[in-house]
Design goal:
The protein has about 210 residues and is an alpha+beta fold. The chain has a single domain, classed as Tubby Protein, Chain A, CATH 3.20.90. It is built from four helices and twelve strands. A twelve-stranded antiparallel barrel has the order 1-2-3-4-5-6-7-8-9-10-11-12. The longest helix has 28 residues. The protein is globular, with a radius of gyration of 18 Å. The termini are far apart. It comes from Micromonospora inyonensis. Pfam families: LOR. InterPro entries: LOR. This is Scramblase.
Length: about 210
């Protein structure tokens, strides 16, 4: 009898967590703009993903990401909040060798959402990434400014310069990621395509910071 009660409570708890995740996904998918801010912590990289308030200021926390340092930077997990009890999504490299690596993006259950990968050849001059989501055409993102791209590429001391990535498919804008001026790494993400999965967009935006220099 005790075992049956325990199992019923476990199923109820799992159902509650799943329902909460779907509520979070609905909230995410309704967003057209995000603010992403990096937290600097010893031995770990962390990122906060916030909604954008009507006045353009930082709104409520939508997701919290954590990436271990000194671990080849091959995996990042995002949670519904900074308590880190309920995963929301994650991305992981298919191989440890980082040149031209492909990163698979999965949901909280490990099911595939899409992928992104770095175009090593084109990135020699201007950083270029490709994003793929089932049911949508391939998306390509590049830095908008070639001079800024070259300065950041060849002058290490200028890696703090802001940048603007435009992601397009067939000439149509899908989303953009803009690194802001100021201390710390802060980004504004704007989504223009209604069907692109916001989890994939957020993963790519965080990947630009966590993986760009690799």
């Amino acid at each position: 009898m005790i075992k049956c009660v325990w199992w019923a409570e476990m199923c109820k708890s799992r159902a509650h967590r799943t329902e909460g995740t779907f509520t979070q996904l609905d909230q995410l998918q309704a967003q057209q703009r995000f603010h992403i801010r990096q937290r600097l912590r010893f031995m770990v990289n962390q990122y906060e993903v916030h909604a954008v308030a009507p006045d353009g200021s930082e709104g409520g926390l939508l997701a919290f990401a954590q990436q271990k340092r000194l671990a080849f930077k091959e995996q990042v997990t995002l949670y519904t909040d900074d308590i880190k009890q309920q995963p929301l999504l994650g991305f992981k490299a298919r191989q440890r060798l980082d040149i031209g690596a492909t990163y698979d993006v999965t949901d909280h259950l490990g099911n595939p959402i899409g992928l992104f990968r770095k175009d090593f050849a084109q990135s020699l001059l201007r950083s270029t990434w490709h994003v793929e989501q089932p049911g949508l055409p391939p998306v390509t993102g590049q830095k908008r400014s070639m001079p800024v791209a070259l300065l950041r590429r060849f002058v290490d001391s200028l890696s703090w310069l802001p940048y603007h990535f435009d992601f397009v498919a067939g000439g149509q804008p899908i989303f953009s990621v803009v690194k802001q001026w100021g201390l710390g790494d802060r980004y504004t993400v704007e989504v223009t395509h209604p069907q692109i999965d916001r989890r994939l967009v957020i993963a790519m935006a965080i990947g630009l910071d966590a993986l760009q220099g690799r």
